[in-house]
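Troubleshooting log. The previous structure file for this entry was overwritten by mistake, so regenerating from the original sequence record. Sequence copied from the archived sheet and checked twice against the printout by T.R.
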Amino acid sequence: MKTPQIKFSHEYYKFAGAKLPFKAVLVQCFKIHFSELSRCFIAYDTTYDAGEYPLPKTDLIVLLLMFEDKKLFTTIRSYNPEKWKYYKSLEGEEVEMVRSWQAKNSSLAIKYYGLNSDIKMDNYVKDFQKGQ
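Regenerated output below.
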């Protein structure tokens, strides 16, 4: 069975130097409303090089994850009943953290750049990072 994936749009500071993709164990899920989150927690969870990722001001899911070295980190996800059920089913399981383009755009990379050389994939990554 393929390892379930959690997608990220950026490399966040909360990863403590780990670079996507990497694996972690989903320890626990929590449902919480945006209004209950402290400013400090929001900054911790959403900060990356270009700023902070905006969160919806609605119900949210906080995932508590554990690196292989037992250090913990979180990620905040938008809430809907299907996502809640999915994440709850993964508690205690290993999941893979990936960049969203690694999961969503892999077929685009194959079609546009081909995967017969690392140079072409490197060019795809560079173009994606530039927003092309």
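Residues 7 and 65 are 14 Å apart (CA to CA). Archived copy saved in two places this time.
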